[in-house]
What we know:
296 residues; mainly alpha; MetI-like fold; two-stranded antiparallel ribbon; 2 strands
Amino acid sequence: MDRKPLTGKTWLGKLTAFTYVLPALMVYAIFILFPIINTLWYSFFNWTGFSAPVFNGLANYQELFQDQVFRKAIVNNFRFILYYTLFPIVLALILTALLTRREVIGRNFFRASFFLPYIMPMVVVGVAWRWIYNPVFGLLNSSLRAIGLDALAFPWLGDFALAQPAVGVIATWVQFGFCLVLFMAGVQNIDESLYDAAKVDGANELAQLWYITIPGIRAEIMVAAVSTLISALRAFDLVFVTTRGGPGNETMVTSLYLYQNAFQLNRMGYASSIAVVLTLAILLISYLLLKAAPSD
């Protein structure tokens, strides 16, 4: 079938539409696309940020994949997926079942309270929890000592074995409120007759959650998984405020290592290569996750 030639009105309409998009496109290009391209460009240079860039080809990437600290940071990022993604989603699903399948007084209050940590600045969250974890006067250890559990009063953020789980608990506390609000909104779109039929068939609340609620909010679960997974891979502010990557490198993450190389060691070219690898990892994992998601 032959296509109709574009008339003057059609071209004018397309041009008019483009002019509406152009301002936003220019802002996006200046603040997003150009920095991305610039970062990729400088990853092939030896550059301090002040000196003249010196081209060194793939030397930054060769060093990067032999860097033990970078490997440790990558492993820690993937471990944080448990605390940023898996635990919040599971906890949110349980709370969704509790708050939506029965009459709960103050349901909206609970929903808002759980969501509050997610919208708080992460610096505020980190400072508050650093005080809670303080080994001398922190709320957690003081409470443990008050009830006679002195043996459990650990230096939570300074212990090599406990630092990462301690930071992970904060991440779970922050992220699960977002998942909860998302899931509770999705449950409202599920046909109530499905639950009525399940009750008639003798299905308990656990069975209803597994066979009705989870399949019914599959799209919301995928959104939560991708969003929280990206947060885990680009984690920075929480770790920076609480542990600065310590003790040792037990809580070192890729974004923090990037920051240290860029602004403390003045290795902008090397930091750019870290940023490129981190961006590619986020894009690849997000793509695979979306690809693996079952279609309706």
